[in-house]
Amino acid sequence: MDYALPELKRPDRVKKNQVLMVASGDLRPAANRTCWAAQHDMEQKLAQAIADAGYELVRAHPYCPDAGHGFISSQKQGMEVFAQLDPKAPLIVAEAVWQYSHHVLSGLVSHRGPILTVANWSGQWPGLVGMLNLNGSLTKADVKYSTLWSEDFTDEFFTEGLRRWLRKGELRHRTDHVIDWNDVEPPRAERKLGKALAAQLLQEKAILGVFDEGCMGMYNAIIPDDLLHATGVYKERLSQSALYYETTQVRDDEATAVRRWMESRGMRFVTGPHAETDLTDDQIHLQCKMYIATLRIADDFGCHAIGIQYQQGLKDLLPASDLVEGTLNNADRPPVTSRDGQRILYAGQPLPHFNEVDECAGLDALMTFRVHSALGQPVENTLHDIRWGDHDRSGTVNDYVWVFLISGAAPPAHFTGGWSGASSERQPAMYFRLGGGTLKGVSHPGEIVWSRVYVARGRLRMDLGRARVVELPAEETERRWQSTTPQWPIMHAVTYGVSRDQMMARHKSNHIHVAYANSAEEADQALWAKASMAAALGLDVALCGTKADGEAW
Fold first, then answer.
1. Model confidence over 489-506: pLDDT tens digits?
2. Which residues, other chains included, contact 365 with Cβ-Cβ below 8 Å and sequence gap of 6+?
3. Which residues belong to CATH 3.20.14.10 in the chain?
């Protein structure tokens, strides 16, 4: 019998010196329209660099006049685009904006030609953040790729790297700042503590509360259950609809008390009359209700840490969750009682919150909380985006200074002045239609441990390093804010023994996890203890860079 077989169109082959390019974008139309100009400018510069190398850049999908941008803006569209592409052609994914990795992941997983991810070195829109997220997702998916970044696409680092990739189909960066755990000898006391904390977690298991998995297409932020279970940690899969409902059940007087508590500590709310563009009292009131609701749901399910997706789902029902997230991450926060009023929930401690339900950050937050509690170090910790970096234009600091920036999950304990150094401003309308306030502040000077949990080759891994947070003049801080997103909390970080390009070459996520210690020596101890705990839980551990004094690990 003859069957009617589906007709498959064979994609056109690219010419010898042609290179295809795709651009993954946001799912939110307003963000794509607003950020398109920066993307277009980047693509023009990239095309010229390709032409100077003797090749032609061919855009694989057109600009859409009706949409007002030229991004791939959904997984469906990404599948349609890749179905028409030569699967063996050299392919560049160019990013000057935040992008949803799942828009292009299916096509990149099956693509057989060389892949290069490229971002513009700019803080204006989160292009670097988007590229790092895509890199982390490709790493988890075991897809071979190369990566590059540049300010103007004419510098030698970029042009030489590009030519190498065009000739050979691959590009490798030096990562000699990375030291395998098996090549170091941790101090006995910290190793013993780490192993004991790991044994406790494996016996007395913990729960990550996950309010809807897979925020913004971040495939790299989802830990497969079997890998997570091996650490003694399990997911409680929660629905954001439940959080919405619980928010509506909180009494007005309870929410009012939360805001009054914050203001009594010196918190400043920057409000206005127009809900479309200003932070309003009604938005803040709902955020205070969400804060109470989150703690009550976490208590219901016995969660040791919790993550709210928000960006898709709740964004059409409630103001942003960021004020909630940062408050949860602080030990000193408004007290919340159980529904019957008989108990204070999570009294005197944070309920660690992992922004955007990044489960890798959730596992890290849980471990960090336990390690720092055992060591008597500050327990507040948070993730940040690796948003951008630049030399200090004021001349105060000679080192390269990173801009770590997140939408509001940073705890006030990290800010200069604590709660009195914190303010709340309306979230940008292109991301957050219903508004809501951030938890904004400038991170105080001090020693930190940074880390990242990620998945590679089917295994959980953790990279750790040391850094210091520096104080910059107000004018330089403001320049950096205005070059990124001025409503969000900022951290000025100098990484020890890790350069800009080394960080970009190695880091497998848009997020970086940070926690303070009381001194450089104690920060080293915290790093050793957390690394030892991770290794004892079966993670592949690597130390990055050096100690504060430049000494090798």
1. 999 999 999 999 999 999
2. 305, 352, 353, 354, 381, 382, 383, 513
3. 183-544
**Average pLDDT, stretch 190-208?**
98
pLDDT digits (tens, 9 = 90+) for 233-260: 999 999 999 999 999 999 999 999 999 9
What is the DSSP code (8-state) at residue 64? B
Contact 39, 23 (CB under 8 A): yes
Structure tokens that stand for 541 in this block: 């551990």
- The pTM score is 0.97
Phi, psi of 141 (to 5 degrees): -80, 0
Fold of 183-544: L-fucose Isomerase; Chain A, domain 3 (3.20.14)
The class that CATH gives domain 18-168 is: alpha beta
d(CA 363, CA 228): 8
| Cβ 481 vs Cβ 489: under 8 Å | no
- Three-state DSSP class for 495? strand
Yes or no: say if 420 and 442 are a contact pair by the CB < 8 Å rule.
no
How far is Cα 157 from Cα 155, in angstroms, rounded to an integer? 6
Please give the angle made by the CA atoms of 109, 112 and 118, to the nearest 5 degrees: 70
Residues of the chain with CATH 3.40.50.1070: 18-168
The three-point CA angle 395-401-404 to 5° equals 140
At residue 306, the pLDDT reads 98
Interval 10-57: pLDDT, tens: 898 999 999 999 999 999 999 999 999 999 999 999 999 999 999 999
Task: Return the DSSP state at 193.
Answer: H
